[in-house]
Amino acid sequence: MVLSARDLRRDFGGFTAVKNVNLDVHHAQVHALIGPNGAGKTTVFNLLTKFLQPTSGKITLLGHDITKTAPARVARMGLVRSFQISAIFPHLTLLENVRVALQRPEHLAVQFWQPLSKLNVLNDKAMALLESVGLQNEYDSQAADLSYGRKRVLEIATTLALDPKVLLLDEPMAGMGGEDVGMVAELIRKVAKTRAVLMVEHNLKVVSDLCDHITVLQRGEILAQGDYATVSNDERVKVAYLGTDHDG
Question: In the structure, what pLDDT confidence band is assigned to residue 78 with cuts at 50, 70 and 90?
Fold first, then answer.
């Protein structure tokens, strides 16, 4: 496994948002975190990426204990996250967006005194990343002009610029039409061939088609784990999330 959590817990005052969560994320697999609203999915994401510090428990990345590691350091170690709100620069071109993301791994992020032309050395790598996600023909378009789904694809390209070992995607299909959902699902499948992917997702058709392993949360605790057939046939999951035969 590349990312694991053991006995993860997070308290907010007298409220326990996450309790006794054990999670194993494996290389070259897509792992989904699902559950009803308020189940604790985003809190788990925030704990894993260290935006929140656990009250107790242990988090391991690539064999290293990162429980008390700062978020920026965790990202540099290979754990990279996308957010529900797209984090691209709308008035830059697609090429420029990816080039910005490449500046840190190429050690150009702090060389602000250099002329802009110095960043042209990143163009080939940026184009290769755009090609890997199918956006190479729109490299010179402004990001603002992309469809919503293609904006999410561009965001994935910018996260891939950091060469993550584990990619965390927070509701990557949210607000998309069917064509965009299919496009992004195929991209995630491709991306997961060379890294681990952990995603929060509400679209159960996507989860069933795409994910190798599923963890179901309810009220901050794990309700069930396994492949889609296992969790979808669990009566507790049907009642809590998927709906029972009597729900119509």
Answer: very high
